[in-house]
Amino acid sequence: MVEEILKTFLGRNKSKEIFLEHDVKGLLKEVGIPIPKGVFMGGGPEIPSLRDLRFPLVAKVSSSSIASKSDIKGVRLGLNSMQDVENAVSELLKIEGVEGVLIEEMAEQGREVIVGGVVDNQFGPVVMFGLGGIFVELFKDVAFGLAPLSGEDALWLIKQVKGHRLLEGYRGNPPADLQRLVGIIVTISEMMATGLIEEIDLNPIALYPKGAVVLDAKMSVVAPAA
Predict the structure, then answer these.
(1) Domain residue spans in the chain?
(2) Domain 38-105 fold
(3) What angle, 0 to 180 degrees and rounded to 10, lies between the N-to-C axes of helices 151-158 and 178-193?
(4) Residue 183 is inside which H or E element, if any?
(5) pLDDT per position as a tens digit, 105-154
(6) In what order do the strands lie in the sheet with 38-41?
(7) Span between the terminal Cα atoms of the chain, in Å
(8) Rounded Cα gap, residues 166 and 220, in angstroms
(9) Cα R_g (the chain), whole angstroms
(10) Nearest-CA neighbor of 136 among 166, 113, 157?
(11) Which residues pair with 104 in a beta bridge?
């Protein structure tokens, strides 16, 4: 099922090897991975209808040439009115290399984790899991597994990171929805196992006591043989 959805998606986007965030999130939604509700606008100044979205909103630059949105101040949070959105979009469209703006409902704060996949030269497609923030930036607290993974494999992978206890409930905090996290890891592993994806990065994913949502996503695919 996941492979069929991925092949159909790639068939609709034959000319692309690197995908913008809204494209990746559209694919994630198709395979059952939760994403925020949002709309994408191209490089033009006209803002699409936002009547189906609830404030507060977030606006982010979209560009295949921009590696980090935060580095170029390409994110505007806490937009509480159309005037806020218009001002944010106007500022973001002035950033060099921008190809559009993604406007989404602002997700509630949760415990942030990272799920990714890459094709390793030696081991083939692998899946990565880690806790977000300083855990991955400073401590490099991540774990890897060979794709595809079963549910048991995914749970094992989660427990390989030193900070996994923070997800199980710690010092009075409720446990995160590990079942939902396991499902996301398994689905990403199935996508990687197709051999069609070169790299995918869901960073971060906000985890809640019930549910999860992917806040940012990148993906590149294997270039077709000449």
Answers:
(1) 2-33+109-221, 38-105
(2) Dna Ligase; domain 1 (3.30.1490)
(3) 110
(4) helix 178-193
(5) 999 999 999 999 999 999 999 999 999 876 676 667 899 999 999 999 99
(6) 38-41, 100-105, 57-62, 75-79
(7) 28
(8) 31
(9) 18
(10) 113
(11) 38, 58
